[in-house]
Amino acid sequence: MRALPSGTVTFLFTDIEGSTALLHELGAEAYAEVLAEHRRVLRKAFAADAGVEVDTQGDALFVAFGRVKDALAAATAGQAALAEGPVRVRVGIHTGEPLVSEDGYVGVDVHRAARIMAAGHGGQVLVSETAQRLAERDLRDLGLRRLKDMSAPQRLYQAGAGGFPPLKSLNQTNLTSYPPCQPLARCFCRCGPSLRARSRFCSPTSKARRACCTSSDLKATPQPSPSIVVC
Predict the structure, then answer these.
(1) Structural domain count of the chain
(2) Once rounded to an integer, what is the mean pLDDT over residues 204-222?
């Protein structure tokens, strides 16, 4: 195996969508042939753009590139080569600066690339914001998404045309703009048939604020014995 790229590295993960269903449809022998052909096609496309295969497990491939544009070109070529066959592959691309150990790459960027891939659909190429900035080409902005095991929302992009179902993220992040809190503002919460005052110490983005201190609940007119809310 060629030496792994180091420094700033672009990771590419692939995975067959619906592999179990395809196995049942084709049968074990035919599926094994399809799986082998899919690997051959992808490896050829990735090697043509200087990709170095890091690992393979089941129907998944993990490849590293020294440049984002090479990873994008390889992903595009691989998808085109598989377009007429029974296999549909999802691809995730992310750029980072991982640690290179004797066993391969170590670092959160490896996990992030895999999570990005898992959010996509067969035939789709998803790209992280970091990779997009280095791509030197226009990519479709899919917005902020929450991915498994990632603490912060990730902005994802799509390379290439084509429409796909919503991404398989935990939820689509909707960064709602909440009205600014006023010091010592009174917060009245609709907790039942009547309007009652409740003590809250909440930040503009806290669950208490979202659940109770909505813009419609903030009243300027004092009510009997209100509790003061410090936001």
Answers:
(1) 2
(2) 40
Q: Is the pLDDT of residue 215 over 70?
A: no
Give the pLDDT confidence score for residue 152 in this predicted structure.
Answer: 84
CA 206 to chain centre: 24
Tokens read off for 49? 């753009």
82, 155: one domain: yes
pLDDT digits (tens, 9 = 90+) for 35-68: 999 999 999 999 999 999 999 998 999 999 999 9
Evaluate whether residue 25 is within a structural domain.
yes
| 48-10-54 Cα angle (round to 5) | 70
- What one-character DSSP code corresponds to residue 119? T
**Helical axes 68-82 vs 28-48, angle rounded to 10°:** 140
Helix and strand counts by DSSP (H, E) for the chain = 6, 12
93 Cβ neighbours under 8 A, 6+ residues apart: 10, 11, 12, 68, 71, 72, 75, 113, 116, 125, 126, 127, 128, 131, 159
Q: Does 140 share its domain with 62?
A: yes
Nearest to 150, CA basis, from 104, 86, 94, 103: 94
